[in-house]
Design goal:
With about 550 residues, the chain is of the alpha+beta class. The chain folds into two domains: about 280 residues, no CATH class; about 180 residues, no CATH class. It contains 20 helices and 13 strands. It has a five-stranded antiparallel sheet with strand order 1-2-3-8-4, with helices on both faces. Strands 5-6-7 form a three-stranded antiparallel sheet, with no helix packed on it. Strands 9-10-11 form a three-stranded antiparallel sheet. Helix 11 packs across helix 19, helix 16 runs antiparallel to helix 20 and helix 19 crosses helix 20.
Length: about 550
């Protein structure tokens, strides 16, 4: 009988203990779930980068990480905060000074150096994009790689010094260039042919566009331009003939033209791991986000873009060209759709549809004047990709590609070299692999910045940092002084925080960038600094960070 009582008491104690444990566990789960829900509703901003030391995370946190990009943070650990601060001071110290004179080998001559180029190089020309995409001459393009039989380390060093000297001459030659806006450039021809356009708000907006930028982030005209892009009446809509996916050209009131990219995928969509960059869908929210990253970085080279809700029937179908209008239809879900004409994603199964009915979200970007009204130059990017699933590009197979192809080209003995480095940094931060050409307005003359167009395939993945985008910087090891100094200051302030502020100030559509993409931008900025430090350790600060007078 005694044993039965003991067993009964033990059972009661065990049950009470189990119930207590279960209650505590349930309470913890509920509290944790509420905390996660609050985080989803009001996502916290990432802390300023300057406050985050390289080793501030406890070692056990690595065992609980589910982010595949966690390893991408490791390269920055090699660059300490003190080292970065020292680099900043060195670059700042040399700001505005003449480019350093390097010990050029008097027996080394650039023309003689070019004459030693291997005959094998004739197979490594810039193959037209259509030939690449169609797979023509596949064997020759995959097996013939340019080689310089006699290139030495001294050749590379002397070529670097030669290019720096050319950049120094370029800086002196253009140091007193006046900055002229596009309105002034166009005023004479407009006065003669279309004088009424001189009195439009479009013409006033053209005053923001110059050889150095396509907008002024401090100008009240930018806010006025955004308001016009977002709310003005659409008078005509048609399709842009270029491109693999549909782009709609809109005529707005008061002389404006805009480029509309429609909603395709939600904000948290990630490019599928098995999809190539050239098969990726273009995202309207990526165009919007890229503009705000460009603005915060201080480049001001992405044409202004804003989100807008359109009515497909009234805004597009009612104003469409005859050919465009033929592609509209009503889906089984009673939503208005259109497919357009293009080489990719322009069929009924990939149609753009209202969500729901006639409601369509899209990005509206200012369309800059085009030829023959304004002259442009379209440059094949030397680091463009092969656009083939089975073939690598030349720069991917040749670690000396920059020395053998870029630095020997006279076109890159100008600001274009450092503009291309700016573009590579920008593309790396936004994760854009689809940069096959570079564009600039040549109506201003030779001293003209690149315009960062077509960013719809950026922000495809936040869990992967593709270091191949940094190939121009990794192989050439050149970077603009003013860009480095700005990036350092943005790093100190917290780059992602500034992007959030810019979006909140100008963009009406919510949640353009999810928090994972914001974290990726901060992470990639650290990786970029680490790559620049590797270049500096190899060549010294003065031979890598160049002050060419461009802010």
């Amino acid at each position: 009988m005694r044993q039965i009582r003991i067993r009964f008491r033990s059972s009661i104690i065990f049950i009470l203990t189990s119930l207590s444990f279960f209650c505590v566990l349930t309470l913890h789960t509920v509290l944790w779930s509420n905390e996660q829900l609050e985080n989803l509703i009001d996502l916290p901003r990432p802390p300023p980068a300057a406050a985050a030391a390289a080793n501030d995370k406890p070692i056990w946190s690595a065992f609980h990480s589910t982010n595949p990009a966690q390893s991408a943070q490791l390269p920055f650990d090699q660059l300490t905060v003190k080292r970065l601060d020292d680099l900043y001071r060195l670059v700042l110290l040399n700001k505005g000074k003449a480019l350093t004179q390097f010990p050029v080998n008097t027996s080394w001559n650039f023309d003689w150096f070019l004459a030693r180029k291997s005959p094998l190089n004739f197979n490594d020309t810039n193959t037209p994009m259509d030939a690449v995409e169609s797979g023509l001459n596949r064997e020759s393009m995959t097996t013939k790689v340019s080689l310089w039989k006699t290139m030495t380390d001294d050749d590379r060093l002397q070529l670097r010094y030669f290019v720096i000297e050319k950049l120094s001459q370029w800086k002196i030659l253009h140091s007193n260039d006046s900055i002229v806006n596009l309105a002034d450039k166009m005023s004479e021809s407009l006065l003669q042919d279309e004088p009424k356009r001189l009195n439009t708000s479009w013409f006033q907006s053209m005053k923001m566009i110059s050889s150095q930028r396509v907008y002024n982030s401090q100008s009240p005209r930018l806010k006025q331009l955004f308001n016009h892009l977002q709310s003005s009446r659409i008078t005509h809509s048609g399709e842009m003939s270029q491109g693999t996916q549909i782009k709609v050209v809109l005529d707005l009131t008061d002389g404006f033209q805009a480029l509309m990219k429609p909603y395709r995928v939600p904000r948290d969509y990630q490019t599928l791991p098995d999809h190539f960059y050239f098969s990726d869908v273009e995202r309207h929210h990526a165009e919007i986000a890229a503009f705000h990253v460009d603005k915060v970085l201080g480049f001001n080279r992405v044409p202004p873009v804003i989100g807008r809700i359109l009515d497909i029937s009234n805004d597009l179908r009612a104003t469409a060209t005859e050919e465009f209008a033929k592609t509209f239809f009503v889906s089984p879900a009673n939503n208005t759709c259109f497919r357009g004409h293009c080489s990719y994603y322009c069929d009924t199964s990939h149609a753009v549809c209202g969500k729901p009915g006639d409601r369509l979200e899209g990005s509206i970007q200012l369309l800059l004047p085009r030829p023959p009204e304004v002259d442009w130059q379209k440059l094949v990017h030397p680091y463009r990709r092969s656009y083939s699933a089975t073939r690598q590009a030349k720069w991917e197979m040749n670690a000396n590609f920059c020395y053998e192809h870029v630095l020997i080209d006279d076109d890159y003995h100008t600001r274009l070299l450092l503009d291309m480095m700016d573009l590579a940094a920008f593309d790396f931060l936004i994760g854009n692999l689809d940069r096959h050409h570079m564009m600039r307005i040549t109506a201003f003359g030779a001293n003209t910045a690149l315009v960062h167009l077509d960013n719809g395939r950026s922000f495809g993945r936040h869990d992967f940092d593709d270091l191949s985008i940094l190939a121009p910087i990794r192989q050439c090891c050149f970077f603009r002084s003013s860009t480095f100094l700005r990036f350092y200051e943005l790093y100190q302030q917290g780059l992602s925080n500034l992007i959030i502020d810019s979006l909140h100030q100008y963009e009406p559509l919510p949640n353009i960038l999810i928090v994972e993409h914001l974290q990726a931008i901060d992470r990639r900025l650290k990786i970029l600094f680490n790559q620049l430090d590797k270049c500096i350790q190899r060549y010294t600060v003065n031979a890598v960070i160049i002050d060419d007078g461009i802010e």
